[in-house]
Amino acid sequence: MAWPVQFLCRVLRTIGLVIFYYIFSIGITFYNKWLMKGFHFPLFMTLVHLTIIFCLSALTRSAMQCWTGKPRVLLSWKKYLFKVAPTALATALDIGLSNWSFLFITISLYTMTKSSAVLFILFFSLIFKLEEPNPFLIVVVLLIAGGLFMFTYQSTQFNLEGFILVLLASFIGGIRWTLTQVLMQKAELGLQNPVDTMYHLQPLMFIGLFPLFLYNEALSICSSAKLFRVSDLSPLLYSVFTLSVGGALAFGLGFSEFLLVSRTSSLTLSIAGIFKEVCTLLLAAVFMGDKMTSVNWLGFAVCLSGISLHVGLKAYYSKGKSGTLRQLPSKDSPDLELPLLHRGEEEEDGETEEVYDEEEEQEILH
């Protein structure tokens, strides 16, 4: 009787973690789209979210430090600027352009186009030699690219400007997650825990996105009656509250992904990501009035088949190599498992830093 009970508990726990992940992942997509209908400052919104994520990450690190009695990793300025800055800039542009696209396109077109990030992640993973060439990758690329073309073909709600923004965000997202893969797997940096990674990324992300905000939104937001030129306090408090909720959702998304992966597997998150795309499109069609033709749905099915094939191939080729693989997290697309960097390639100038025990950190977080 013990084995069925344990199995049932494991299944229920997995379902609960997937639902927890869906709440933040789907929730932030619809929430940002809803917010953009009345608040036309996506870059400012992103800067507020980055500030909130940094504060929540700092609080989480402090709590973990008090619980374990061990100091958290803190990079030197040299490593911080030269190792973290490229990843932070790519991440800021990916998130900023994604939020910007909500001003022009529907959730369904956003979701479908953002799925193409898998192509760019594969492309840059091959360039950085994090992914081994595989003949099946050609089939994956053709399926995803063909599905994206069919989805956007003769779409009644297609917007070129928004499509270009989110496609550019997907391209930068490929660079972003490839650099994140390298950043989190370099042992001497000690950023294996996503909370530490988020804590170090946010300040540089803010600095990288701020010039674009100054160029595009600074003047208009200074004259906006929603923030700086309010005649009543209630609109200001409402704007601050809505922006804060989005920041909390953004932090919760990264945290929920880590919980799901650490308690189940990266394959579970990848499969959950596929069904998340389906749920997002169905909800967009029902609640947001997004219109999709039969050709669009067929294109979405073709694209999902390509992503599913990629997930299946990664699961197949990962058998017997679980000790040398690490999860590559993603907020908008199914995750990839890529080979760990060899320790000999990681050490520079004979410097090594303490690497925290991941199992202990996972128990703390749970």
TrEMBL record:
Keywords: Membrane, Transmembrane, Transmembrane helix. One of its GO terms (cellular component) is membrane. Coiled coil: none annotated. The chain crosses the membrane at residues 12-32, 38-59, 103-128, 135-154, 160-179, 199-216, 236-255, 267-289, 295-317. It is a multi-pass membrane protein. Pfam families: TPT. This is Sugar phosphate transporter domain-containing protein. Residues 16-309 form the Sugar phosphate transporter domain. The lineage of its organism: Eukaryota, Metazoa, Chordata, Craniata, Vertebrata. The keyword NADP does not apply. It is found in: Membrane. InterPro entries: Sugar_P_trans_dom, TPT_transporter. Residues 326-366 are annotated as: Disordered. Residues 346-366 have a biased composition (Acidic residues). The keyword Transmembrane helix applies. It comes from Megalops atlanticus.
